[in-house]
Design goal:
single chain; about 190 residues; alpha/beta; Rossmann fold; six-stranded parallel β-sheet; two-stranded antiparallel ribbon; about 20% strand; hydrolase activity
Length: about 190
């Protein structure tokens, strides 16, 4: 497992008010926000780079449609004035967003990624980061997802969807670590 580098960026994906909309369904990991806050507090205290990703949907009726409160960051995880904010319209935080350039111009090679949805925006962003050559760490206990139906109509519990997504990311794209381990690595 990699150690956490001094300039590792914390990337927080889609921690917006819309994530608590009941129409998204049942989720796993009720402590995810607390774990994200622990990471965020540590990154801020150490003056490490923090990037907040915000999803702005192009789909009518989405909880993330422009102008809705669902687009706003959750109060406890809102960016500070000097923290970088990236808006995206697709799950991958790197696609057409300028994120890679922002990281490269600051010589940031290591990313710690937290947020939602594990098997959607987190996984697609982690896959892109891995393919772009970033040393990527997924904070498993600082991510969550929702129950999901497959194409046959079978309902998969969020816990299973989360676990399989983490396994997908660990295969080729990232290291997967618990928040306690990440914080211990900060030293």
């Amino acid at each position: 497992m990699p150690s956490i580098k001094a300039n590792a960026a914390l990337i927080i994906i889609d921690m917006q008010k819309g994530m608590s909309d009941p129409k998204l369904g049942r989720r796993n990991n009720p402590d995810a926000e607390l774990n994200i806050q622990r990471l965020l507090d540590s990154w801020r205290q150490a003056q490490r780079p923090v990037v907040h990703i915000r999803h702005i949907s192009r789909t009518a009726g989405s909880v993330f449609s422009p102008g809705q409160t669902g687009c706003e960051f959750q109060d406890a995880l809102a960016p500070l004035a000097l923290e970088h904010v990236v808006e995206k319209n697709v799950p991958d935080a790197f696609a057409n967003s300028g994120l890679e350039r922002w990281l490269r111009t600051r010589s940031i090679q290591q990313l710690v990624i937290a947020g939602v949805v594990t098997n959607n925006s987190v996984e697609s962003s982690v896959r892109a980061a891995g393919c772009l050559g970033f040393d990527t760490i997924v904070a498993a206990s600082a991510c969550y997802t929702f129950d999901q139906k497959d194409l046959t109509g079978r309902l998969w519990p969020a816990e299973d969807v989360h676990a399989l997504s983490l396994a997908n990311m660990a295969m080729d794209y990232a290291s997967v670590m618990d928040v306690n381990r990440i914080l211990a690595e900060l030293g």
